[in-house]
Design a protein that fits this description.
Order of helices and strands: EEHHEHHH
Strand content: 15-25%
CATH superfamily: GIY-YIG endonuclease
Largest sheet: 3 strands, antiparallel
Number of helices: 5
Distance between the termini: 22 Å
Helix content: 40-55%
Strand order of the largest sheet: 2-1-3
Radius of gyration: 13 Å
């Protein structure tokens, strides 16, 4: 099995501010967001809940997927989250 990449969506709260990102280490990356170790959007807007992620085997496919989701309408992102996580649970705690 090759390296895995994760395309993920963080939310400030249910139906709140959304952030889409990509990483090869989901647990570490979300930990960094939660603890404001990364300057920028998620720190400024308190976007710390992992509400959606998917595993992608190829880095180029992962980058492409992230770019696509970032261009989506907000309603589509909410639909993607709610299809897999209707309660908007913070999935980080299921991973650690």
């Amino acid at each position: 099995m090759g390296k895995q990449y994760y395309v993920y969506i963080l939310a400030s709260k249910k139906n709140g501010t959304l952030y889409t990102g990509i990483t090869s280490n989901l647990i570490r990356r979300v930990y960094e967001h939660k603890n404001n170790l990364i300057e920028g959007f998620t720190k400024k807007y308190n976007v710390h809940q992992l509400v959606y992620f998917e595993v992608v085997e190829d880095v180029n496919a992962a980058i492409h997927r992230e770019k696509c989701i970032k261009k989506w309408k907000r309603a589509w992102k909410i639909e993607l989250i709610e299809k897999n996580n209707p309660e908007w649970k913070d999935l980080y705690y299921e991973l650690v």
